[in-house]
Amino acid sequence: MTDEGDAFTLLHRDPREVLTVVKGIQVDLYEATGEAELRVAVDYGPIGLERDAAGAVVGIRRGHDVVRNVARIEPLVAPSQVWVTERFKDALERTSSFYHAEAIDPGIRADLRSADGAFNVKKTGSSEPDHFLRLFRIVEPRR
């Protein structure tokens, strides 16, 4: 986790635990400030951490696509929502979880979507190539 700016990075193997931590942060933030307007982007995949001689994390040696994906998705997320990639959704579906991922309404960010509904998460204003991802929104079961 970093403490600079208004973002943090969380690495975990279990998709259920990721959502438990994220929801816990939302509750803690709300109880401390009266607001919980977090925009959360989550991807799933292997990450390899680079460590110094003392064992402290100093960088990422593999898994740059996972980190890049969340960095590109987060600005698109509506406040107080959690958006996830198809890889995360698939991993979540392999567990028993209170939460599930559902399709994002087709009218949301239609300017960035392909005909099949995938989002172009290319960094705005950059010359990087288009990068399309299928994204989903985390929801609690209807009661």
Describe the structure.
It is a single chain. This protein has 143 residues and is α+β, with helices and mostly antiparallel strands. It has one domain: Nucleotide cyclase, GGDEF domain (Alpha-Beta Plaits, 2-Layer Sandwich). The strands form 3 sheets. It has a 4-stranded mixed beta sheet, sandwiched between helices. Strands 2-3 form a two-stranded antiparallel ribbon. A two-stranded antiparallel sheet has the order 6-7. β2 and β3 form a beta hairpin. The radius of gyration is 16 Å and the shape is globular. The protein starts with 14 loop residues before the first helix and ends with a strand. 20% of the residues are buried.
SSE arrangement:
Layout: H1 15-33, E1 39-42, E2 48-51, E3 57-62, H2 64-73, E4 81-85, H3 86-93, E5 100-103, E6 119-120, E7 132-133, E8 135-139
Parallel strand pairs: 1-4
Antiparallel strand pairs: 2-3, 4-8, 5-8, 6-7
Short characterization:
The protein is α+β, with helices and mostly antiparallel strands.
Strand content: 15-25%
What is the overall shape? globular
| Number of E-type strands | 8
Named at the architecture level, the CATH assignment is 2-Layer Sandwich
Radius of gyration using CA atoms only: 16 Å
Instruction: Determine and state the CATH class.
Output: Alpha Beta
**Overall average residue pLDDT:** 88
SSE string: HEEEHEHEEEE
- Termini, distance in Å? 34 Å
* CATH fold group: Alpha-Beta Plaits
Largest sheet: 4 strands, mixed
Residue windows where pLDDT falls under 50 for at least 5 positions: 1-5
Helix content bin: 25-40%
* Total count of domains: 1
Structural class: alpha+beta
What is the tally of helical segments?
3
**CATH homologous superfamily (4th level) name:** Nucleotide cyclase, GGDEF domain
Provide the spatial order of strands within the biggest beta sheet: 1-4-8-5
